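User: Here's a structure from my thesis project, written as structure tokens. My advisor, Dr. K., wants to see whether a designed sequence matches the one we expressed. Can you design one independently, without my sequence as a hint?
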């Protein structure tokens, strides 16, 4: 449901919050945009898979906050 283009269209300094389901987000596309746009922030209570794989960039990106579901 939420693709890379949605993230690219976000206003400067916007924050994306997902407390619904991780699967509604095209996760790799989100990661790609977050790497390109350090002004965006993602607050994620859910991911797909949950928890993210051990090597997921979600753990390392400075503009991502993961919270325990």
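Assistant: Designed independently from the structure alone:
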């Amino acid at each position: 449901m939420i693709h890379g283009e949605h993230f690219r269209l976000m206003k400067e300094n916007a924050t994306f919050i997902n407390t619904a389901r991780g699967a509604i987000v095209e996760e790799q596309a989100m990661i790609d945009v977050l790497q390109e746009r350090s002004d965006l922030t993602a607050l994620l209570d859910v991911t797909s898979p949950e928890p993210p794989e051990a090597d997921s960039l979600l753990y390392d990106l400075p503009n991502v906050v993961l919270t325990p579901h």
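When you compare it with your expressed construct, this may help: Strands lie at 15-18, 41-44, 64-66.
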